[in-house]
Amino acid sequence: MAALAFSCAPGKRERPQNLVLISIDTLAPRRTSVYGGRRDNTPTLAALAARGVRFTNAFSTASWTAPAHASMLSGLYPSTIHRSGPRANALYELVPRLLAEDFAAAGFQTAAFTGGGWVSKALRVNRGFETFEEGVHSYVPMPRPVQWLRDHGRERPFFFFYHTYVAHVPYRDERYAHAIDPGRLKGIWGVADWDHERNTSPLAQLVCCERMVPTADEREFLLARYDGDIAQADEAVREIWKALGEIGAQDSTMVVVTSDHGEEFWEHTGSGARHGHTLYDELVRIPLIWVEPGLTPRTSDVPVSLVDIVPTILARFGLTPARTLDGRDLTPILDGWWRRWPARPLFAEEICTDASEGPLRWRVTTDEGTLIETPEPAIQRGKSKVVPSAPRELFMPTDVAEADNRVESDTRLAASLAAELAAHRDRRELQGPLQPWSAAPEDLVKQLRALGYVQ
Fold it and tell me: Nearest CA to 65 among 51, 78, 49?
């Protein structure tokens, strides 16, 4: 473990007055222009990155929405919340304290506008929020969130949380897809193929579950629709940023933009438009852009995690955590008064059983490599057929595609990382026994069906 070394003593800085936390669900950084994607679909995120710190090695704690957001809003790994992997309806209930509760206790206004589903009041994500509104289907139209900022942003300091499923299936934006032959995907998300009674589309069955091998045009068509949805999400961020300008709060507000997970497009399992089934980079690598008063714009390649967001926000606002957190305060990176960041393992977990599929998985990433363990690779969970993987997969940092399993050739590193995972799994959970899944409210079922989780 490397020692932390400082280049100079940290200087005084102006604390932000307000917090805006934006979660763009299912946003794979490799498909965004701000992270090198070929389509110019994130000009707003690029403009924000030019004002703050863009992290290029940020990782989620899970590959689907509920456990990842539980980490994002608590600073805890899902297995810290409950070691055996709780059902999604228990995750937010079991968290000792959510970020909104910290800000509410400190006297801030708290407001959230979410896409619902796995980020809904029915699951108690509303803890600590005075205002909490959620969408009926895949995303929240912008007028209400923006109007809240215009109406209340000048009253007193606020914490504003915005979550959107606009980049989640079904991909509806056509701006980049018009000239591409959709092949067998023709009509998907169209009126003719939309099941109005069930409020869903055939995407999950046609693309994800039936193991379709796409042509080059079909693959490009699907990616174009996804890239267009990302552009729509960027436009939503633009409207929030514009509203902050209208109330004179751009220079006094911390804005953090991130995601819960990415998306697979046939990289490892033969599935497209899919997540929640593996822990490879295409699913756990996420964007993280941090803007606040007084930051010197920079790009950081230091590995960071979703669990770092809460402790860093609390530290930057001068708030004391009311519990022990798994994450680390990133202030030395944000303020640039460090020379060498202490090495540490970052974990991701596929342990929660409501929407995740396939066998249980664990991942650890260090500066030496990444180890993914699948203790029982033949165990099947979920509605989709999953190709079993090797019990252990070891990838070097230079293996960007995670295609060369080195577990047999580098036994020393594999054993070292396996020990890190064992220690992580052996931690005691904070809460009690697993809570049973109760009958889900009808509105929640409709939201999850629209997102493809309920058939």
Answer: 78
